Amino acid sequence: MYLEPAPPRGEPDIGKNQAEGDTCSRILQIVEKLSHIKDIHALLDAVLLQARELTRADAGSIYLIENNVLNFNYIHNDTLFGDSSSNKYIYTSQTLPIDNHSLAGYVALTGKPLVIDDVYQIPESMPFRFNHAFDEQAHYRTRSILALPLKTSQNKTVGVMQIINPLGADLGPTRFTPSDQLLLSYFADNAATAIERAMMTREMILRMIKMCELRDPKETGLHANRVGAYAAEVYHQWALMQGQAEDEIKHTKDLTRIAAMLHDLGKVAISDLILKKPAALNPEEFRIMKYHTILGARLFFNKESDLDTLSAEIALNHHEKWDGTGYPGTIDDIYQENPPLGSGKKGEEIPIAGRIVALADVYDALVSQRVYKSPWTEEMTIDYLKGQAGKHFDPEVVEAFFAIYEVITAIKEKYQDQGASPPNQNLPS
Question: What positions carry a catalytic annotation?
C-alpha cells in the first residue's frame, strides 16, 4: 500500500543509468521552464501536465497547504474534461484537514509518498479512506493513485500532488511502478520550489490589493481574485476563437490573471473624500476619479517586463468602451504632469486585455453587494451584458464570456464575499 524507493542492488546497469540520467536532465529542463511561470494557477496546470506526461496518467490534482489546511487548487482529467486548462472543476472549493483520514491529508501529515493500486480495495487496517463521491457524481472510476508531498529544498511541505490512473501502451489502465514513484518524487521536489515562489508572488499581490482596500472598501482581495480569474478564462476562450497558438495562449493567460488583479491599484492616489463619498460624484470629482487609470498605469513602468507592460495596458484601458465613450482616452504621454484626458479609444484601438477586463470588472460589480446597491440577479446581469455588446463591450469578448459561462459561475462561487456559503463539492482525496 505504501511504498518507498528501494536502494539499488547488484551491479549497476549502465544502460539504465544512462536512461535515468537523461530523464533527470529532462526534468531539470522542465523545472527551469516552470520557474518562469508567474501565476500560481498557470504553474499548477503546467506541473500537473508534466507529471502526468512523465507517468502517462489520465488525471491528477494538487492541494496546497494554506492556513494549516489543504486547499484544493487544481485538477486534470482527460477522460472527463479533455482540455483541463479551462473547466469549472478548477474552481471547486474544498479543504481537507492535515490528518491521516484522507489520502492527501495522510501524505501532508507524514511527508511520505503513497502508492495505491486500487483505491476501492484499501484494507480496513489503513487509517485513511478514499472519498468515492466525485467518482459517483462524475461517473468516473479512480483506480491507482500516486500521492506525493510537494517539498521545497528546505524540506517544507507546501502541498500534495495526486497523479491518478496511469495508462499502458494500449491506453488501458495499469499500475504505477517503483520507477514512476522515483521519477515523480524527484520531479515533485524540484517543482515544489517553483510552487512556493508563485505562492509568495500571489501573497505579495494580495497585500498590494489589501493596501488598496484600506483606501477603497470596494477593492477587496476577493474582487481582485474574481476579476483576475474571469479575465484569464475569457482571454483563453477568446484566443482559442482567434486560432492563436497554444504556447502563446498559455503565456498570455499566465500574465493576464495577475495583471487583471492589479487593474485598480491607481486608486491609492485618489483622495478619500472622493473614494469614500457615500453619494454620487459630481462632475469634477468624477473627472479626478478618471485619473486612477493613468496613475495605475504609471506604477508599471518597466518596459522590459511583459507583466508590467500588460498590467499598464489593463490599468489604463479597463474603463474604455467599445463605442468610444469611455476614459481616459488617447493620451500622448501618461507621465506628463496632469495630462489632459483625451477622446475615448474606440473598438480595436483598445488593447484586448483592456476590453476583457472591462467586461470582467463590470460583471463583478453588477453581481456583487455594494454599500450603495444590492447585487443584480444573474438574469438582469446577463441581459445587460448582452445588450451592451457593441456599445460598452467588444462583441467577441461578450461571446467568449458566455461560451464559458459555467466556468464564470464556478469562479464566482469559489471567491464569494464573506457571508456567502460555497457549495460543498467532493473531489478525490
Answer: 267
